[in-house]
Amino acid sequence: xxxxxxxxxxxxxxxxxxxxxxxxxxxxxxxxxxxxxxxxxxxxxxxxxxxxxxxxxxxxxxxxxxxxxxxxxxxxxxxxxxxxxxxxxxxxxxxxxxxxxxxxxxxxxxxxxxxxxxxxxxxxxxx
Length: 127
Prior knowledge:
2 domains, four-stranded antiparallel sheet, alpha+beta, globular, 3 helices, 127 residues
C-alpha cells in the first residue's frame, strides 16, 4: 500500500487522510468493499452537506436491509431491489427514479462523444 502524506482528525470518529499518490487513494476506494458488515465507512472527502445526505441514504438502506431487501448504496443514490432512488436536493429526500429518466439506462457513448459533451474524465484532486 502507498504512503500517507497527512492525517487530520475531524472529530472522535472521522479522519481525513491524504495519500502521496492518487493511485493509492483509488486502490483504497476500490478495496473498501472488504469492510462490508463492519461499522466503518470510507469515502472520498465530502462536504458537511454531502455527508449528511449520505447518512440519510445509509439510514434508509439499513432499514431496507433489515426487511431483507437487496440494497446497493452509491453517491447520493440507493438501489432497492433493482429500483433506483436518487437524492432530490429541492425536496431534501430520496425519490424513485423513473426508468426513462435514469441516466444509467442511456446507450453508452464513446470517448469522442464524451469529449464533445465536455464530460471527458480528468484527473482527480486529493484533498
